[in-house]
Here is the input.
Amino acid sequence: MGTGNSNFSNVDDSALEGLIGSSPAMRDVYQMTRLSARSNSSVLLLGETGTGKELIASALHQLSDRASGPFVRVNCGALTESLLDSELFGHVRGSFTDAVRDRTGRFEAAHGGTIFLDEVNSTSSTLQVKLLRVLQEREFERVGDTRTIQVDVRVIAASNCDLNQEVTKGRFREDLFWRLNVLPIALPPLRRREGDVALLVRHFLQVYSKANGKEIKKIHPDALTALIGYPWPGNVRELQNYIERAVVLAQGDQLEASLLPTTVMGDSQAAQVAVFRPTDDQSLIREFVYNRLTKAEDDAKDLFRQIVDPVEKELLTQVMHDCNNTQTKAATRLGINRNTLYKKLVDYGLAKSPKSGDTVSET
Here is the structure.
């Protein structure tokens, strides 16, 4: 046993399957997960993007008496209200234009098991009413149907924002919040998981070395020091991305510091330009272009902007679309201040510049 929450000293605090980390903060999570798994009560997972909420949800299901039943995942933030309504509760043929046949919803599909509602904070007020009914009455109707369907399903929800604040702002129903928040589990950001970065680095190094047919078993001390000292705004998902990239680019048997992004290595000038954290191929291209062109003459800087601007504009457009044009959600996903995001939207012609005296809107 470790030094987890003293209130649960008799509960196993060893790492759960699929999760890496032995920090006190994570041992508390392991204990709370094991305790919560024994119940059928709703669980609310809270934590920043990339902290492993889906892994905890899966562990809760696997450790429960429902493990032999289905585990159904739904990303509530990825669908519009009408699509999410049909996705969650199903629909009958003819209920709307594209409803050419009856469809079973995710709640019905999860009968006897667990449903995981990720980004539950993004649901509309109408859907929140339906979710509240399912939690309280264990029943619902498909879209366009009058027949009531009874379900036996455990609900695990997740949010990357403070639902208490969402309730205060009138964006989330208070009664639904309390129905979901029976067993809250807060996942710590990676920057607060002392000692876990080194464990995760070695784990991902082994995973991606094997996946790429390489034998990279060593990490240069400078690289490890930089990785441990970096604040990880994108949490474990960001770390995983950087290690995978470094392994792919590595030429020898050691992970060198030069294989890491300049933001991780502490290049303040590069950090100011790299507004968006490099987490995909387009970002890697921007970083490569920056490293090469900023060393050239002033006229090369114009070429840099010509290359970077279209990529950045495309990224902004895609993220705003994925977030239903909600700037707060988009800024959170990109890891930047909403005012910074708004300025860039205006600069690229993706949002109107406010008139004098106007305030910046949420959308």
